[in-house]
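Q: Got a minute? One more chain.
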Amino acid sequence: MSWVQNKSRILSLGVAGALACGVIGAVPAAAEDALIVKSTVVDYKVGTKVKEADKITLEAGDVVTVLTRRGTRTMRGPGTFVVGANPKSNRARFADLTRQRAALRTVTGGVRSAGPDEETGRPVNPNLYYIDVERSGNVCLRDRSELLLWRPYNATSATYTLSETSDEAGAQILSLTIPFAERKSFTTVDGERFRVEDGASYTISNAQAASVTAITVIDLGADIKTADALAEALYQKGCMAQFELLTDRLASGS
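A: Always. Here it is, folded:
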């Protein structure tokens, strides 16, 4: 496994020579960054940036997936690959995954998921900004004026309680009861009823299932428009459930 730079070869060939060898067109015109989002190779860690013009040599069984400005690129060894060559467009899938209320359906008042996870069989969250009531960790939001809550299983009705947490002894804790009707996977909470703060921690509990989910809200500060930039922001802010959802969906094309 090794890096092979091709910039000097292109420069030495010149434009005409590069065209004759088929080099130009195989790599992007500008040496933009690509983000490694999946990797089975220790040398190519998830979250690392590489140049689209770089080449990666992989051995049999190695798999590296990157996000670029132009799409998703999955490289499977053995072989040597130009990082940014011929990425698969992910614009439609990215738009569907991040569009406000993209997954709302009028079918039985619920939300249609993206289908079950191939490994676990667990329904997949249909939207990056829906808060999974069963997944603890950092949650990155682009808009804190309305919370969008989603549950993976909806066969029966359930009641959850959204509560703020406090380190102060005797401090009054704000909480809100959130009912889910039978067959309903999705609900909203108006920010006027329950205002979440950037960097604050909350719990989502279900007394019937004796479950407690702990989340910390992180404000993205902007509506990030490209998949590579959003994936990088999610990774840096530790919003790993969303990072994994985004990269899994874009890599699989589902």
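A: The radius of gyration is 22 Å.
Q: Perfect, thanks.
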